[in-house]
Structure formats: C-alpha cells, structure tokens
Amino acid sequence: MRVLLVEDDRMIGQAVQTALRQDGYAVDWVRDAESADTALRAGRFDLALLDLGLPGRDGVSLLRGLRARGDATPVLIVTARDDVQDRVGGLDAGADDYLVKPFDLDELGARMRALLRRSAGRGAAVFEHRGVRVDPATREVTQDGKPVALSPREFAVLEALMLRPGAVLSRSQLEDRLYGWDEPVESNAVEVYIHGLRRKLGHDFIQNARGVGYYLHKPDARGDEA
Ligand code: CA
Question: What is the pTM of this model?
Fold first, then answer.
C-alpha cells in the first residue's frame, strides 16, 4: 500500500514514516500542500494522511482542490485542531476520517486499515481467498488453517493481490506499493517476492499474465468460494 504523508512537523513525520514502513507500507513524506498537490497529481496513492496546519496553503484548501478535480484518494486528516467546527469542516471538505493529535500509532493504523477496506469496497476486516486468510491488523497469514510466515514485502505483495482477485497488477504497480521515493528499488524484487509467495502458498495461487503482470483467480473461477 502506498501512502502520502503530508506533515510539516519533523518529529511526528519521522515517527509516522518509520512506524508505517515497519508495517510494510510504502510511504512518501512531503512537508507542504504544494508538494502534496504535485505528488497527488503525479501518482496514485492508496491513502493520504493530511495535516491541516501547514506552512503556506493549509490542508483544507488542498483537500478541497483534490475533491474539486474528482480525485477520490482516501484522506485521513491528522491534526492538532480539535474544535468541533474544524472536524466538521474537514469532513465536509472531503476527508474520510479525522484523527486529533496527539494520537496513538495503533489507532492511526486501525483507522488506515478501515479506510483501505472501505475504498476497496470490502466490509470484512480479513481477506480470504482459496483457503488463504490474511489479517491486515495482526499481519497473520494462514493457508487451510496453518500459519504461513511471510516477509513484510511478501505480505505487501499478497495483500495488494488479495484486495481485488481477478485484477492484474503490473510489476511497476506492485513496486509502487513496496517502495517510497527515497527507497532504492531492487531489480527483479517483485519476481523474487512472487517466487517466495508461490513457494509458500503453492505455484497456482498466483497467476502470471505474461508481459502484463500478476493476479489471483476470481473467486468464482473454480466455484469454490462463497
Ligand atoms: Ca502542522
């Protein structure tokens, strides 16, 4: 999952970036609204964490512009502004959720997972597909009830594929979910993680659309899914 972090406070930004990277998110961190705007126009993010008090243009103005041009990227406002009017204003400007500083990193993580579920059109907190069960909250993976140990990046690849079974993800789309701007992309990394996942989950679990990318069979492809 790729996250845009918009935060001008160095300590908070550093803490959030470090925590999210440990959880396997690709995090791009910008310090002002103009840089955030440029980033959002240039690339696709699964989620944006938006501070409101920023140098220059503020977060609400950025958010209004984003929604005005039809960008539906889920936005979670994370701010010290705790007035009811600020919360109402932020949500009405197009935010999907609102978290007041100081906040607990565990709560931030849970709210992010809830938004990502909703934006993928899923109600359930756990992904299940062909006997494989992925819990984004605990990061536990089982296959037919037996635990499967995955590296954080193998987990990120599997989670991305399980969000929409049947959808083909290209190598660069998967790389986008694995690496932030300032992290070097290892060549063949995606192939290595796919190979590892197939070794652990069975070769047939992940399909290869030659020259296009990777996908999971749609749930009804074998008629074995509810
Ligand atoms: Ca701020």
Answer: 0.82
